[in-house]
Amino acid sequence: MMSKQINVLTTTDLHGFIANQGDQPALALQGLKQKFSHSLLMDSGDFFVGNPLTTFFTTEMAVSPLVAYANKVGFDVMVPGNHDFDHGIAYLKEQVKHLDADYVCCNVFSEEGELIFPPFAIKEVAGIKLGVIGLLTSRMSMISDFEVTRGVVVKEALLELKKQVAALREQVDLVLVGYHGGLERDLATHSEINYATGEDEAYKLISQTEGIDGFSCGHQHRVNHGQLKQTLVVQCGYRGSYFGHLTFDFNEQTEVVKRQEEVLATNSLLPAQKGDFYKEEDYQKWLKESLDLTHLTEFLQEKYGRQHMGIFISLQGKSRQQVINSFTIPYGVRIYHLSLAEYQTLLKQDWTFKVEDYPAGAQDFVIMTNSYEVPEYRLTDQFVDNIFDEYSYYLKQHD
Fold first, then answer.
1. Residue 286 burial (10 A CB sphere; 0-12, 13-18, 19+)
2. CB-CB contact of 316 with 322 (8 Å)
3. Measuring CA to CA, which residue among 248, 272, 198, 243 is closest to residue 43?
4. 8 A C-beta contact, residue 46 and residue 180
5. Full-prediction pTM beyond 0.85?
6. Residue 138 reports pLDDT greater than 50
């Protein structure tokens, strides 16, 4: 009896890392599909946004070079991540118009209740029908600013997923899901690894939905793979450093007789590929230009608005590159609650921007800063937001 093998290849959280210089594993994906026959390639989101280069693309070009990259790699199906909405739904729709891939998501709606993207795509590979459902984390309201998701309604992932799996199951030979969200439980031990906030719920989605053959998740920038019941699960890290590989063997009756998953390092794909999707000299010139800083504290006050919070920001200079370097990854800004004596020590330091907003006679002080020269035992909150990218978008919106 003859068998047929289908290869499902997955990526996630590339975050636009296709620079011409430095270590860029995502560039090696240009040769991925050529190495696997009978293959489908899907991406699970956070593709268009995530580093200064993508901010350059967004502010300087109507169509991001990441579109040309995606088309050259040969993605078949793509799913939005939370950061793909960071420049607004109109910008994302414009990029999608130029993609060769199907762009799908079953739980993102307009305020009028209409799906913004198709909920799924059906692709045929070597005579086998594959249905691919797109899904976004339910908790966009917790992790994205209202301004960038205006006009977008993200519904609960589980209910919408169940609807689409039921609609697809009898139409296709394989049901696949691309989910921009992470795992809340360990795939092997089933023990909790995250607080149950609803932001990451891949385990729940798979466990409570019958009929899913393959599930690609992301968002957490972690690497995982395993199997839950009959569902193969992969999570492929960050920046394209890894890709998922799901294999399904079919008999002549198009029944799956064997299934297996793995996550592979992208550096196993040789030879290395070059970029050249944009002009490097234009990017370097853009980095050296001065950034308008007149609205920086206003932006921070609006984004992290709290009563009577001071802002203390130290910058290396005024150029875009210097501002980028001033907000160190992963935590661009942090909030501290200081005593009077600790606050008085803070005041003696040199700051590029200093905003004091406290009632008369205050004895304790909530401050936001990008400096680490503050007592760590007073830290109350810290944020992974890309301050440079979001501030650049803020300027664009307030021109």
1. middle
2. yes
3. 243
4. yes
5. yes
6. yes
